[in-house]
Amino acid sequence: MEFFKLKKEKNSLPQQEQESFMKRAIELSEVGMESNEGGPFGAVIVNNGRIVGEGFNQVTSLNDPTAHAEIIAIREACHNLSTFDLADCIIFTSCEPCPMCLAAIYWANIDEIFYANTKEDANNIGFRDYFIYNEFNKPINKRKKKFTQLLNKEAKQVFCNWALKTDKVEY
Amino acid sequence: MEFFKLKKEKNSLPQQEQESFMKRAIELSEVGMESNEGGPFGAVIVNNGRIVGEGFNQVTSLNDPTAHAEIIAIREACHNLSTFDLADCIIFTSCEPCPMCLAAIYWANIDEIFYANTKEDANNIGFRDYFIYNEFNKPINKRKKKFTQLLNKEAKQVFCNWALKTDKVEY
After folding, report:
1. pTM, entire model
2. ipTM of the modeled complex
3. In sequence order, what are the residues at sequence separation of 6 or more whose Cβ sits closer than 8 angstroms to the Cβ of residue A113?
4. B64 touching A, CB under 8 A?
5. Is A143 on the interface with B (CB under 8 A)?
6. What is the DSSP-derived secondary structure letter of residue B123?
């Protein structure tokens, strides 16, 4: 009950402001596409009613498969706010985030997501978001990639050292 | 059958070389942790038997929640090879990739993944990989984040423009 209340209260932007930020995200999706920087995706990050990070897809122009709109917007917002924790921010994205961007939103602690197109819409114009989501639901040995585990004992020693480390910065 | 053959043939590195690349990934996980740049994670990307990209987690030092080892290694490999397509590359990572990094591996077209620690190992030292994977399995309205759809019609117009665009670079 408390948790539900918290989630509701966070969505405090009036509908008109929500639409205005989403229009900016959609505008960015168009700008990036028209300038041939990448796919038709845009995103903005809002903190206390103002935009603190923006991005549009630049995968093909930057030669960076991670240069999705949301990733760029998160990196810019973190840079502008000098933090790796965007817990007080909201993201507006022109399309439901792909698994990479959705996980980045979780790692950045953004709790509220506004989206316009769905991953099915993205699938219909040839993007693989849906396929990747489906892969995640399969056991590791049934996926279309080959996974092999190696040297677990050696790597686990580093994890033990982390657990024992007294001056670590957790995230 | 063909597909299976293709997957098998790609894993052409001798065991000793595999272990040597994984040792480098584990070494990087230790370097980043000891220098307090981020969590205990390292990754290397290999193309034709040589390392073309490396990374260790730098989330807290760079104020970038997307600065995971695999993301940094993918960006470096793409930069070094001047491409957004790492189809001929293999990744060695000191831990089973989180959903962000796994999806990045899919977007980069890397077909083979060697890992040392598992996501359960990461969970045991306090990382949220496992929690985020579980969130992905829930319907959008059951997740611990608030999702709201807005302005689908306006955003879909941009997708239609993409579908009709004649000079687009697909990825």
Report:
1. 0.92
2. 0.92
3. A90, A91, A93, A97, A105, B145, B146, B147, B148
4. yes
5. no
6. H
